[in-house]
Amino acid sequence: MKIVVSGFKGKMGTACTNMVLRQEDFILAAVYDPFATEKHLDELPQYAGHPVKVFSDKATLVKEVEADVWIDFSRPDAAYDNTRFALENGMRPVIGTTGFSSEQLEELTNYSKKLGLGGLIAPNFAIGAVLMMEFAAKAAKYFPDVEIMELHHENKLDAPSGTAIKTAELIYEVRGDHPQGHPEEKELIEGARGADYHGMKIHSVRLPGLVAHQQVQFGSAGEGLIIRHDSYDRDSFMNGVALSCRKVMEIDRLIYGLENFL
Ligand SMILES: NC(=O)C1=CN([C@@H]2O[C@H](COP(=O)(O)OP(=O)(O)OC[C@H]3O[C@@H](n4cnc5c(N)ncnc54)[C@H](OP(=O)(O)O)[C@@H]3O)[C@@H](O)[C@H]2O)C=CC1
Ligand SMILES: O=C(O)C1=N[C@H](C(=O)O)C[C@H](O)C1
């Protein structure tokens, strides 16, 4: 299977290129980044002995390279364009980049169906994070009062995280709208109670030293329940990305969420 890694210079892009090079049935056909130069390959030890084409221009890439899968870990503001581009050019998208609106997800899904091309957009590729979301949705049936705290490294561009949004969506499916806290509560400093998603609060923490962590905290009369997941290392996402590259070859439309492959 021939794979392009988009955003290859980044933290996740670097982990993905290493992962692709480690898999016997994967070929790293090309790497893409709008700001890349050949010099970047020389600087990256993981490419030693592997002739890989580097592109800073998508149009040139598709003229010179044929690939089955487009892995993308770039920026929230590039996620839609890159996914659309992959589909338009016959590459199955495996997208970890966050920041899609629900309208964009719907449009891309419809487009992939028209083309009959498989793909996946997943806000989190760590198996433990998928389980955390499923457990949280299950608990919400019995514990409708919940707050989500997501904690990430200080270079993260989007807040709340894609994982927190997906978790909130799953919980909303179970419990619906549910105002929380005192009806007369007032924020003395704006934002003190976090973001509000159908009554549930989402808090975003950004600190050096963190990777990706989320705590879903439930409260009920006289008891509490905390479901927590920690990614200590970006390797935590790689089994999910590798699995998804194989699975998108077997389906004929774009899907949202790694849980669909587990
Ligand atoms: N789904 C999941 O499991 C996970 C998702 N993520 C998501 O992946 C994304 C990337 O995260 P991370 O690797 O930490 O970020 P980084 O900032 O480390 O890497 C992003 C890279 O993308 C490059 N880039 C900028 N614009 C484009 C573009 N238009 N096309 C392709 N590449 C581009 C950047 O280049 P430059 O620096 O020169 O601008 C940078 O090298 C984020 O949205 C994050 O939330 C992260 C971890 C797990
Ligand atoms: O930016 C990150 O690092 C991560 N982004 C994803 C998200 O927004 O949920 C997945 C994971 O939390 C790491």
Description:
This protein is of the alpha/beta class and 262 residues long. The chain has 2 domains: 2-121 and 235-261, NAD(P)-binding Rossmann-like Domain (Rossmann fold, 3-Layer(aba) Sandwich); 127-231, 2-Layer Sandwich (Dihydrodipicolinate Reductase, domain 2). It has helices at 11-22, 38-43, 58-64, 79-88, 102-115, 127-140, 162-175, 238-247; strands spanning 2-6, 27-32, 53-55, 69-72, 92-95, 119-121, 146-152, 195-197, 200-206, 212-220, 223-231, 254-256. Helix 1 links the parallel strand 1 and strand 2 (27-32). Helix 4 runs parallel beside helix 5 and helix 6 (127-140) runs parallel beside helix 7 (162-175). Bound molecules: NADPH dihydro-nicotinamide-adenine-dinucleotide phosphate (NDP) and ligand LZUJQKHR. Residues 6-7, 9-13, 32-35, 73-76, 78, 82, 96-98, 122-125, 162, 237 line the site of NADPH dihydro-nicotinamide-adenine-dinucleotide phosphate. Belongs to the DapB family. InterPro entries: DapB_C (IPR022663), DapB_N (IPR000846), DapB_N_CS (IPR022664), DHDPR_bac (IPR023940), NAD(P)-bd_dom_sf (IPR036291). One of its GO terms (cellular component) is cytosol.
